[in-house]
Amino acid sequence: MRILVLGFTGYLGGHIAGQLRALGGVRLFGAGRAPTADLPIDLATATTEHLADALADFSPDAVVNCTGALGTDPVTDAEVNARGPAVLCAALRRAAPAARLVHLGSAAEYGASGHGVRVTESSPTRPAGTYGATKLAGTVAVASSGLDAVVLRVGNPVGPGAPPMSLPGRTALRLRRAGTDPDAVLRLGELSAYRDFVDVRDVARAAVLATTVPGPLPRVLNIGGGRAVPIRDLVRTLADVAGFRGRIDETADAGAGSVRSAGVGWQCSDIAAAREALGWEPRFTLADSLAALWASECSRPRLETMP
Where does residue 25 rank: exposed (0-12), middle (13-18), buried (19+ CB within 10 A)? Predict the structure, then answer.
């Protein structure tokens, strides 16, 4: 089976590529902006014609799209999260119409929901910001493409290698710098919102299953932990794992909140459809994820600066 992974060096893409490599009978190709890519491509600027020609050369049986802008600015979000999937779908229709497309969406596409509500794939989509809106546009492009395609709407990924731009990764980096200093202050801002955290290794396993399982799949599947956790609990648990002895500052202006989830106090996904379609459910607890995150953070080279 020939599988092309776009964004294969990113956080999610790296874990997905790693699990695909471990499968027998798979020939894996990496695509993206990394110098090691088998297919050098930037979906934000690629033309349909150029991408179709490249895809024809690789003749993939499946394509996994892990690319995505993380809410840095509206233009980049639109180019990568909305335009990119549309161009990819158009190119696949020309060059590899029988290939399965697995596209990583985001639970941010749902926006705010009532406290205690688990959103299903048929729940209304009311994204609260540019990130969620552009991810939703990408989902619409994929779901309406006519291809053998599925969108995995991923919750808040956490676990080994979490990048510093994510709240778990940023918190781990700051905890490492703080060490066990009892006078240290960790300024993160208000932490009362609830999020559905899912281990990155569980996300990768869902993507592998979606890529390889035979037969048609639903257009959209939620991939999350299936429960809502206060962000405060994640931070304090990670601080305990790190042996942090200082103070956590939760005042509203103490830290910059995530632009991806501004205004969303509760997010939790119903994952029953993924269990039925893929035979998938999370294997890692949040405690497992945070222990693995801290171990991976401690294994990184020491940095003199941090975000």
Answer: exposed
93 lies in which domain range?
A: 2-158+198-225
Query: What pLDDT was estimated at residue 180?
Result: 87
Question: CB under 8 Å to 129, separation ≥6 — which residues?
Answer: 71, 108, 259, 260, 261, 262, 263
Higher pLDDT pick, 143 / 306: 143
Residue 155: both structure tokens together = 């919750």
Residues 90-119: tens digit of each pLDDT: 999 999 999 999 999 999 999 999 999 999
110 lies in a domain? yes
Instruction: Indicate the pTM of the whole model.
Output: 0.94
Phi and psi torsions of 149, nearest 5°:
-135, 150
**Residue 99 to residues 29, 59, 72: CA-CA distances in angstroms?**
14, 8, 31
- Answer yes or no: 11 catalytic: no
CATH number of 213's domain: 3.40.50.720
Q: Is residue 287 part of a domain?
A: no
Contacts of 50 (CB under 8 A, 6+ apart): none
Q: How many domains does the chain have?
A: 1
- Is 90 inside a domain boundary? yes
Positive or negative, the Cα torsion across 130, 132, 135, 136?
A: negative
Give the DSSP letter string of 236-292: HHHHHHHT--SEEE--TTSSPPPTTSTT-----B--HHHHHHH-----S-HHHHHHH
Are β-strands 39-40 and 62-65 bridged in parallel, bridged antiparallel, or unpaired? unpaired
